[in-house]
Amino acid sequence: MRRRFVAIGRLSSEFTRGTRKEHISIGTIQELHRVARAGLGDAGTFKTRDSDIIERYADGSVRVRFRPVSAAETPKSMHELVEGWNRCLEERWVHPLIALGAFSLDFLCIHPFRDGNGRVSRLILLLQSCLLGFEAGRYISLERLIEENQERYYETLEIGSLGWHEGKHDPWPYVGYILFILNQAYRELDERVGHRPRE
Predict the structure, then answer these.
(1) Which residue of 9, 87, 101, 145 could cross-link 175, Cys pair, CB 3.0 to 4.6 Å?
(2) 32 in Cβ contact with 127 (< 8 Å)
(3) What is the phi/psi pair of residue 65, to 5°?
(4) Domain-located, residue 60
(5) What are all long-range contacts of 17-21, with beta carbons under 8 Å and residues at least 24 apart?
(6) How many domains does the chain have?
(7) Beta strand 53-56 pairing with 62-66
(8) Percentage of the chain exceeding pLDDT 70
(9) Is residue 199, in this structure, part of any structural domain at all?
(10) Residues 171-186: pLDDT tens digits?
(11) Domain-located, residue 110
C-alpha cells in the first residue's frame, strides 16, 4: 500500500510542474498499472488478447457480465479516453467530479489491461481527485470505502455498462456512486479531525 502512495505522490508532483496539473497521460496510467502489479509479468502493458468479464456462480455456472473493448482497439480507446478527459477539463463541459466518475466508468468498460483494471481504476480515481483538489483520499482510503460498498459498486458498474459500446448507456448510477464514495471519504475525514459529519 505504501508503494502505491509513494508512486501517486511522485506522479502528482510531476503533474504540477506541467502546463495543466489535472491532465493525465497513457504513460501515467501504464505506470500506475506497473505499481499495482508490482512490476510483474505484463505490468504496464495493454492487453494483447480479447477477454470477457465473467461472473462465476457457486453452482459452477458462468455468465458474461460485460464484453470490453477488443485488444486491437484498446490503444485507440485509451487515447480517446485520456484526450477526452484532458479536453473536458480545459473546456469545462461538465463539472470535474462528474467527468471523474465518467472517466472511471469508461476506463472499466475499456478494461485495458489483462489483469488489475479495478485496482488501477481506484489509483486513477485517487490521483485524479487529488489533482482536482479533492484530497480526502490522501487521508481516507477510497479503496477501502469502495470495498465496503462493493455490492453497490458492481450494481452501478453493471447498469452503467449496459449499452456502453453503442453509446446508449446510463452513466449516472455509477457517477453517483463515485460521488457517494468521495462524500463518504470527506465525512470520515471530518469525523477524524473532530468535526461533526455533514448533513
Answers:
(1) 101
(2) yes
(3) -80, -40
(4) yes
(5) 20/86, 20/89, 20/90, 21/131
(6) 1
(7) antiparallel
(8) 86
(9) no
(10) 999 999 999 999 999 9
(11) yes
Per the domain annotation, does 12 fall within a domain? yes
Distance CA(37)–CA(34), nearest Å, equals: 5
Those residues whose C-beta lies under 8 Å from the C-beta of residue 160, and which sit 6 or more positions away, are: 105, 109, 169, 170, 171, 172, 173, 174, 175
Here the CATH number for the domain that contains residue 22 is 1.10.3290.10
Rounded-to-integer distance, Cα 126 and Cα 138, Å: 8
The three three-digit cell numbers of residue 16, written as one number? 504540477
Measure the CA–CA gap between 105 and 172, rounded to whole angstroms: 10
Burial of 39 (0-12, 13-18, 19+ CB in 10 A): exposed
Range of the domain at 77: 2-192
The mean pLDDT value of the chain amounts to: 88
Name the residue among 141, 104, 98, 138 with its Cα closest to residue 121: 104
